[in-house]
Amino acid sequence: MSKVILYIATSLDGYIARPDGNLDWLTSVPNPETGDYGYAALLERIGAIIMGRKTYDELLGFGIEWPYEGFDTIIVSTDKSLAIKSPDTRVLTDNLTEVVTALKKQSPKDIWLVGGGQLINVFIQHGLLDQMIISIVPKIIGDGIPLFPKNTLQTEWKLVGIQAFNTGLVNVTYEKPV
Asked: Which of 32, 127, 135, 149 could lock 165 by a disulfide, CB 3.0 to 4.6 Å apart?
């Protein structure tokens, strides 16, 4: 069975975006001398991508070609009339638990939960998240959208890896205990 993996960056003070969703603090982080913070390795092991509507809108706002062409991409939204502007993308408005559970059973590869904070919370509450790779960016931004909203369910996670980069960024990997 495939896993749902959260791969996301957070500031030192625990924010994944500014209050308006802006990611300018993140895009200014340089690539390390070698590698790409594990991004290419993640893409090799995933077959599907899930993200919330606000994250989708933010990605579209970058003004670049859709970076996930060829991946089954699901946008979770309450807006049943959401206009999709990217290839291989569909909207999911209900039955999240059933759809993700079926996808985990059917997919030969893992599933990347991109974000955002509200959707991460839902995945934790429903026991759908299996692994977290959290990239801690050495910046304090002061305010924003928290990685875990205040009402996130208390859960235990097992540390399975730490990778530090010459830029000061650290990837910390946790798995849900079995």
From this structure: 32
pLDDT band at 30, cuts 50/70/90?
A: confident
8's enclosing H/E stretch is: strand 4-11
Show the domain range for 46.
4-175
Write out the two tokens for 57: 């809108």
In the chain, count of helices (H) and strands (E)?
Answer: 5, 10
CA within 13 Å, CB half, 31:
7
pTM equals 0.93
Long-range Cβ pairs for the range 152-158 (8 Å, 24+): 152/120, 152/121, 152/124, 152/125, 153/121, 153/124, 153/125, 155/124, 157/132
Cα 62 to Cα 22, 44, 139, 154: the distances in Å are 10, 23, 21, 34
- How many structural domains compose the chain? 1
Binning pLDDT at 50, 70 and 90, where does residue 32 land?
low
- Angle (nearest 5°) at CA 63 between 113 and 50: 15
CATH of the domain at 98: 3.40.430.10
Rounded Cα distance, 121 and 123, in Å: 5
